[in-house]
Amino acid sequence: MLDPITSLLCNFPLAYSLLLSSFTATLTYDTLRFGEFEDFPETSEPVWILGKEYNALTEKDDILSDVTSRLWFTYRKNFPPIGGTGPTSDTGWGCMLRCGQMILGEALMRRHLGRDWRWARGQKQREEYISILNAFIDKKDSYYSIHQIAQMGVGEGKPIGQWYGPNTVAQVLKKLAVFDTWSRLVVHVAMDNTVVIEEIKLLCMPWLDVAGACVESEGVGELNGCLEGACALTEEETPLWKPLVLLIPLRLGLSDINEAYIETLKQCFMLPQSLGVIGGKPNSAHYFIGFVGEELIYLDPHTTQPAVEPSEDGQVLDEMYHCQHPPCRMHICELDPSIAAGFFCRTEDEFDDWCMRIRRVCLLKLIHFNIFFPFLCVDTHFADFSDSDRLERFFDSEDEEFEILSL
């Protein structure tokens, strides 16, 4: 005689199918951890991970260690209700929010630990690392928790529980970073695909603006006296350069990515300042950290794990925040054209170096494709806007989340 559950499944195949569908859509961590994953390819083509080049034939362990060391934020369940009465899980709607956490988490790791820091299971962690993790714990008083992002998104016109686009999450992260007095980041979202050097330098070096105000009020002759007096700023009060997180929302095509942008997109992952790209497929966000050949390498937030509660001493069970299997890959042509690229410049020299590298990429692509890339023009003093004036946008969009590239 069949037991009741088996009988139910036999008599209701549709219900069984729906049950399986629900199960695969919301995997637990244990299921994912012991599942089968495609191994990293044996290829002679270079592998690029956030500005670092690897050889897949001789450095596979180094590749996997680098990927594992990135912070991996996924769906969570059973966290405190958002807003006190809202959802207790972000499964099905929070993937872009989690990708936003990952790209900002990478910036915080660069800021406090450096690009070469590596995570290993069971090792004693630095205090800075624990502080970074605590900034993302799923509770209302963490700087970058799902609670803070979801509630701040209401001001961007996104009700709690609604899916975000790349630009929306970038704008929310910009607002939240203001409250992070420990990291003291400047998060700048470059709209209209244009980065203006003077604007960014005033944001990252606010003392320049203060000095200018002093000059206007006291006169040029009083500059030294003014800076030594009321307008003096010590390095402890205002550092010479506030670390920059630069997010650039882009649209690289209509419904599919325009192949003209593929090589330039790859170049972004090769820059040492790269924080990767947030994007994905329609209504399914991923955090892209590199590429090999024509495949993008990414971390996937679509795994539901239980919420984590720090211990009394602030320590966090951190294994669930690191992807310990070969990373996911997808062909670059499958990428949804709406993305946001991220870059981190810890110092002014790094920002100047980024500008130099971007100009070089822009020049190569301009010659090769005869295409104007407005998101690669970085200085109002020398950027040639005559081309953009002559060239019309090849499409328009009513979607406020995306800024459109011009051809």
From TrEMBL:
Alphabetized SUPFAM superfamilies for the sequence: Cysteine proteinases
CC per GO annotation: autophagosome; cytoplasmic vesicle; cytosol; endoplasmic reticulum; mitochondrion
The Peptidase C54 catalytic domain, residue ranges: 61-356
The keyword Transport appears for this protein: yes
Enzyme Commission code: 3.4.22.-
Superkingdom per UniProt: Eukaryota
Enzyme class name: hydrolase
GO BP term, pick one: autophagosome assembly
Sequence intervals crossing the membrane: none
Location of this chain's protein in the cell: Cytoplasm, Cytosol; Cytoplasmic vesicle, Autophagosome; Endoplasmic reticulum; Mitochondrion
Function according to Swiss-Prot or TrEMBL: Cysteine protease that plays a key role in autophagy by mediating both proteolytic activation and delipidation of ATG8 family proteins.
Protein name: Cysteine protease
Taxonomic source organism: Anabas testudineus
Lineage, highest ranks first: Eukaryota, Metazoa, Chordata, Craniata, Vertebrata
Gene name, Swiss-Prot/TrEMBL: ATG4B
